[in-house]
Design brief:
Blueprint lengths: L1 E5 L2 H4 L12 H12 L4 E5 L7 H13 L7 E4 L13 H18 L2 E6 L10 H19 L5 E5 L21 H14 L18 H20 L12 E7 L8
Parallel strand pairs: 1-2, 1-3, 3-4, 4-5
Antiparallel strand pairs: 2-6
Helix pairs in contact: 2-6, 3-4, 4-5
């Protein structure tokens, strides 16, 4: 099976950092799970942190469809960074995802459209982010209706993933536990039954003091980068830009 992923920091794997500073993430965990099930798996991942849907549906999809051999399956997620812009448009994002549906169908490549988890409970302006996420998630099923090559998996509707135990300290990216749960959801959709990870103990409740510390540590630097037109993905390259064979994982990476 040859599987290519396109997307942003969610699909790149931010929040699931390894001891050497690299990131793993749910996509890496999915291909590890497929390999562990006995399949021969080849993997590419063009996702880059900070990317919005125009380059995901454009440059990243171009790169995936230029692979030789073609992927058997492309997995796409995007829209989270678009939602953080004041000029966000659900209709524009839906049209870009529709273009991915059309182009993969024309290329004869299967498609899985994945909605990301809902971070709104942990963010300021939560009602805005929840509304935008709900609208985009609801817009996806009509996009793939009548396209037999495409399927939809919603992490947004997984209520368990809203729990703070699955989120990293920046409240915008999943932690390793969250990435493991998303991987289990996707693997199950691909026919590989996978148990959900144990969420462990509840996290401490948010307080005014922790929110202030969070604002100083995360929000203000993020806002400063936005004002200067700087993205976390500037100058970054995909972590798997060519076909890479995935060996069955050992106990230390399972």
């Amino acid at each position: 099976m040859r599987i290519a992923f396109i997307g942003d920091s969610f699909t790149e794997g931010l929040g699931d950092e390894q001891p050497d500073g690299s990131v793993r993430g749910w996509a890496d965990r999915v291909v590890d799970g497929l390999a562990a099930s006995g399949q021969e798996v080849w993997y590419t991942n063009f996702a880059i942190r900070g990317r919005m849907l125009p380059p995901i549906a454009g440059e990243q999809l171009d790169d995936a469809l230029a692979l030789d051999p073609l992927p058997d399956l492309i997995v796409v997620n995007g829209g989270g960074n678009d939602m953080m812009r004041p000029n966000y448009s659900t209709e524009r994002c839906a049209a870009l995802l529709k273009s991915v549906v059309v182009r993969t169908e024309a290329a004869g490549v299967a498609l899985l459209v994945l909605s990301g988890p809902n971070p709104a409970d942990h963010l300021f302006l939560s009602s805005t982010f929840h509304r935008r996420g709900r609208e985009l998630t609801d817009a996806i099923p009509p996009l793939i209706a009548g396209h037999a090559h495409a399927r939809f998996v919603s992490c947004y509707d997984d209520q368990e993933l809203r729990d703070g135990r699955y989120w990293s300290d920046d409240r915008m990216h999943l932690n390793p536990l969250g990435h493991a749960r998303v991987a289990a959801i996707v693997l199950s959709a691909l026919g590989v039954a996978t148990p959900m990870p144990d969420p462990g103990e509840p996290v401490p409740r948010r307080t005014a003091r922790t929110d202030l510390a969070y604002t100083r540590r995360i929000i203000l630097p993020w806002a400063g980068r936005r004002l200067r037109g700087i993205s976390a993905g500037d100058g970054r390259s995909p972590k798997f830009a060519t076909w890479t064979e995935i060996a069955p994982p050992g106990p230390e990476t399972a």
